[in-house]
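To whoever is covering the structure queue this week,

Two jobs came back overnight. Logging them here so there's a record in the thread.

Job A:
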Amino acid sequence: MVLRIRLARFGRSNSPFYNIVVAHARTARNSRPLEVLGTYDPVPKKDTYDDSGKLHKDIKLDILRAKYWIGVGAQPSDTVWRLLSMAGIIEPKRRPSSSSSPRSS
């Protein structure tokens, strides 16, 4: 059975909060996952330890468990792929650049 690493949405309307979960590919988004790897809060907030005033999105992730699940063949969704590449676990996806494609005359 195919395993996916994906986001499960929680929180109120207009205030999302996501759990990063490992689940079977054919189950519903908010069904019971096999394991919760971490959390992702996409609403930018000020960091209490940073005096620069920049806004940060909160990502908490169990890196060892994420590496384990990728090692046994779990497929991350596109959004989770981006989050895992920011953590340095997997290589970022490369988009094909439009300048390398030949133009027709």
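Job B:
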Amino acid sequence: MSSIETFYRHIFTFLTNEDFWMRVSTGIVQMIMIIVIATVLSKVLKIAVHNIFKVRQKAPIRISERREATLLKLLDNVITYVIYFIALVMILDTFGVAVRTLLAGAGIVGLAVGFGAQSLVKDVITGFFIIFEDQFSVGDYVRIGNFEGYVETIGLRVTKIKSWTGEVHILPNGSITQVTNFSLHNSVAVVDVSVSYEGDIERAEQTIRELLAELPAKYEDMVAPPELLGIQNFTSSEVVMRVVCETKPMRHMFIARALRKEIKLRLDEHGIEIPFPRLVLYNRQEEETKRAKTDA
């Protein structure tokens, strides 16, 4: 019998082996069951975690909403990683892979790789301290280096920031050295109002003060009634008065725009004009002619 015939005979015997196909079919069924159970378990655990946080929201002592949103996203990721890793190990064990030996070898390889992946370790450690120290949370408006926007995700390795124009910046946590968080405390809206030199300054101030007292009932983002500080500056054609208002975090731009509109409408109602640039022309020749006539 030739070697080719022997080879084909072994292939035929292998393919017609009932025990082999029984093991394969059993393994496939077990793999599908493991994946289904892992998916269901992952969803159940996530729902349970979300419900626990909903219950904590009604408790007298609770963490901030910012911290809750950050921890929820982090726990969702951890649950997904852990459950599917266990599922993968169980699937390998189902097909007869020596999982213990594989994990032991992976530990040695991981130790060797760890020395060459110091930046990855740095990212993970930094991410842990960002969450532990509550430096910033999901939903905060922050500036990190040259990037500025709302925090979408904080992971153990990367942080995602979405700018107001829609770009998403993905930053390794190890590269985050300085953070400016605009969402921790109230903001301040600053608006400058110009009045012409010919206008009645005291009347304009009184009109603006009456308006400012009415605005907190109209705009809920105002923490306190706006305040007219007084005359801020003199320019070539106008007197500049400054209005400030304490607002909820990151609502100062909206309130500043609303203040400008409300003040403009109220000044128009009282006939107080906002100045416009003026240009005075001086005719030297005409002035000299008048002076000559006067001397004569």
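Note for Job B: The mean pLDDT is 79.

Please reply-all if you pick these up so we don't duplicate work.
Q.
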